[in-house]
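In the design runs reported in the main text, the only information available to the sequence generator was the tokenized backbone. The following block is the verbatim input for one such run; it is reproduced so that readers can re-run the procedure and compare outputs position by position.
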């Protein structure tokens, strides 16, 4: 089975398959009952004198055309300028610039303990962000331009391995990384493993997560950037070309300012898409559920659910019937507040198999909803090769490998590009369970469409549906929100 590339809707209800070309030709869409974004998007900046200067130069550059990477105008199109694309202007408010002094940076660098250093750095940004809350007019988005010294001192957990009480050899770190990847694919170890050790192999610290968690109470969305992201003449081959960075950052800023770049064309009105996953609480060996809710238009909302219980054999987390019931009730209430009506259909994507208690709780809570679909999606590392040709299978290819078990290629050869825009053999998603009445063709079509709803960039698609794509990172942000505090539901505070 093959699924055609899902269409996106842009301004004046015009359609296109590619986010960049759709925005360029038609501009962003306007959702019913949503305000028109103002003629200028007000930006605040928090950073050192150097990173503030970089940000100002970057914003100025984004007002004009930036040539694309030579070689392929479809894959790497020029960025025509923010106003040309979105019909509004990026404007930095001079009164909303907060300077991090060299003295403040030096105080952070002198802190020996890594975890404390990260917390102090995060608190410094939050203190500066709090100052902007009382400025009038308030900025729509604040760019946190991280000084390079902060990136170097707080951006890696290497200290915990080489300087702390835990010292790992290169071989041990490699083994932990392999185990972590296997765990993500659903493979387990012969003997129980303390999950906390897997955190040692992560390449980033909790600085971003702490800032995002603490910023929710202030109510101003943030965009964290490193100096190399803002450097126009960078020769670093690990970062994207300048035009692609301009596309991605501009889409993210527009969405965080409450604009809607595009929406899905063929999604049925009244459908509520829910991603159920789990995260580990800070300093606790327990997991909590999280629901990422998306309307048929693509608007994203986040809910924190109840505690999970863990399967003794597979070590996978699950919800009790009561917690599943409560979480689904919260999902329906949140959808109703946002859309002013009950959903006519609910589709649940889960990152592990469903327990019978979970299904019972979900169904009881959604008994007034006419149509329900429960879909379990996993990644076990299965790969397929084409017998002829140099390219991998087409994006949208569906292969049945067993009873109720399907493979869906969300990455692969893209006919629109006439190539495969990737470096490695793509790993498809595996649909291992489906409970509901919708045909598998509909389930796969929706999953494929939801891979195009990442408003954190202007990429053609991502690998996973947006319902599950960023659940790990969203969960780690929620882990820093105190249990007694209700987190903000708007997805833009987690991006």
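Verbatim output:
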């Amino acid at each position: 089975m093959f699924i055609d590339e899902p269409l996106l809707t842009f301004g004046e209800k015009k359609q296109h398959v590619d986010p960049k070309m759709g925005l360029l030709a038609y501009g962003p869409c306007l959702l019913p009952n949503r305000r028109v974004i103002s003629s200028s998007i007000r930006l605040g900046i928090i950073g050192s004198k150097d990173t503030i200067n970089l940000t100002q130069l970057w914003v100025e550059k984004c007002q004009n055309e930036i040539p694309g990477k030579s070689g392929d105008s479809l894959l790497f199109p020029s960025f025509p300028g923010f106003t040309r694309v979105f019909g509004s202007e990026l404007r930095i408010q001079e009164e909303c610039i907060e300077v991090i002094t060299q003295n403040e940076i030096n105080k952070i660098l002198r802190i020996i303990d890594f975890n404390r250093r990260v917390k102090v750095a995060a608190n410094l940004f939050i203190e500066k962000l709090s100052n902007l809350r009382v400025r009038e007019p308030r900025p729509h988005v604040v760019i946190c331009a991280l000084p390079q010294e902060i990136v170097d001192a707080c951006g890696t957990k290497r200290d915990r391995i080489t300087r702390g009480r835990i010292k790992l050899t290169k071989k041990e770190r490699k083994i932990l990384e392999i185990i972590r990847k296997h765990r993500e694919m659903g493979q387990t170890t012969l003997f129980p493993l303390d999950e906390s050790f897997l955190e040692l192999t992560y390449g980033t610290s909790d600085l971003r997560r702490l800032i995002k968690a603490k910023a929710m109470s202030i109510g101003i969305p943030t965009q964290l950037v490193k100096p190399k992201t803002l450097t126009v003449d960078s020769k670093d081959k690990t970062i994207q070309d300048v035009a692609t960075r301009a596309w991605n950052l501009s889409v993210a800023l527009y969405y965080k300012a409450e604009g809607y770049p595009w929406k899905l064309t063929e999604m049925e009105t009244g459908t509520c898409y829910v991603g159920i996953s789990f995260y580990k609480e800070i300093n606790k060996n327990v997991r909590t559920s999280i629901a990422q809710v998306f309307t048929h238009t693509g608007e994203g909302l986040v809910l924190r659910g109840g505690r999970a219980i863990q399967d003794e054999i597979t070590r996978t987390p699950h919800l009790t019937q009561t917690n599943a019931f409560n979480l689904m009730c919260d999902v329906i209430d949140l959808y109703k507040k946002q859309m002013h009506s009950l959903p006519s259909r609910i589709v649940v994507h889960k990152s592990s198999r469903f327990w019978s208690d979970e299904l019972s709780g979900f169904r009881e809570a959604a008994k007034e909803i006419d149509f329900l679909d429960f879909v379990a999606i996993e990644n076990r590392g299965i790969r397929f090769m084409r017998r002829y040709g140099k390219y991998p299978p087409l994006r949208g290819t569906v292969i049945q490998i067993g009873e109720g078990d399907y493979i869906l290629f969300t990455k692969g050869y893209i006919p629109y590009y006439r190539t495969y825009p990737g470096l490695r053999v793509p790993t498809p998603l595996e649909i291992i369970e489906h409970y509901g009445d919708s045909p598998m063709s509909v389930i796969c079509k929706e999953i494929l469409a939801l891979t195009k709803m990442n408003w954190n960039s202007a990429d053609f698609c991502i690998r996973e549906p947006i319902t599950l794509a960023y659940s790990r990172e969203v969960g780690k942000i929620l882990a820093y929100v105190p249990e007694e505090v209700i987190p903000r539901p708007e997805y833009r505070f987690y991006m």
